[in-house]
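User: Can you recover a sequence for this backbone? Please restate the input before giving your answer.

Assistant: Of course. Working from this structure:
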């Protein structure tokens, strides 16, 4: 069958159907904070989200994602390391079976219990799927989640953003098949809080479909990939 996160079809096997898995700009990576070069040319991140654009939430068997209407420039990413306007297409999460793992990017080899990905596509191209095959086609904002007691307001992506949008940025790829090397990664330094109750909600989700033996949707993360000479830049504070 298809790819997944189990022993027989997980990240170590993806190269069989997606040889780009061993390519020069794969994601995620480990961010060594001392090696990230400060770049004064980097602009502040400008994220503008309109909650009325959210369409539906779906379990795609790999994660659950909230999809957005992307037929207008109403939920966009501008500034930061990108030029032009990128439209929000969807957001989703990666998480672990316990709080000691689950994020895809790591910071000085530290893993977080989960990572939020806000996926945007470059409006220089006609659609998300067109953009997904271009080197500057996508921009994903990655935000770490860490455990604490908190309440979840009604769903507007901007409530998910940390106060500081200080970030690291590097050229990478989708972290799921087809692993296309078309992503400008923007990883926020400041995590957001999620309660352990909410983490448990994630872990109650299922990889399996109706009528199949229950397999809990956990550990749906790819581990850090070789940097292969790439530079990681960091924004001004
Ligand atoms: C799991 C899910 N992946 C995405 O949708 C996805 C799309 C773009 C990006 Cl940039 C990322 S990521 N993780 O790099 O931010 C993930 C998926 C993959 C294949 C088929 C269906 C499906 O739903
Ligand atoms: Zn993701």
């Amino acid at each position: 069958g298809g790819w997944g996160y189990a022993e027989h079809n997980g990240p170590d096997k993806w190269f069989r159907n997606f040889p780009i898995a061993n390519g020069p700009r794969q994601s995620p990576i480990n961010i060594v904070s001392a090696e990230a070069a400060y770049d004064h040319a980097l602009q502040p991140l400008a994220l503008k989200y309109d909650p009325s654009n959210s369409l539906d939430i779906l379990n795609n068997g790999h994660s659950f994602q909230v999809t957005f209407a992307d037929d207008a420039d109403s939920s966009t990413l501008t500034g930061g390391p990108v030029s032009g306007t990128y439209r929000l297409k969807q957001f989703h999460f990666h998480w672990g079976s316990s709080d000691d793992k689950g994020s895809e990017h790591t910071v000085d080899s530290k893993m977080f219990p989960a990572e939020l990905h806000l996926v945007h596509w470059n409006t220089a191209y006609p659609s998300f799927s067109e953009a997904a095959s271009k080197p500057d086609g996508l921009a994903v904002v990655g935000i770490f989640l860490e455990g604490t007691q908190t309440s979840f307001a009604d769903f507007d992506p901007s409530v998910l953003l940390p106060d500081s949008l200080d970030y690291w940025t590097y050229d990478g790829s989708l972290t799921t098949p087809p692993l296309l090397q078309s992503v400008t990664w923007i990883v926020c330094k400041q995590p957001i809080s999620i309660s352990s109750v909410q983490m448990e909600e994630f872990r109650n989700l299922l990889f399996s479909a109706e009528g199949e033996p229950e397999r809990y949707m956990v550990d749906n993360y790819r581990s850090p990939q070789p940097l292969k000479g790439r530079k990681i830049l960091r924004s001004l504070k």
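That completes the design. The helical segments are 128-131, 196-204.
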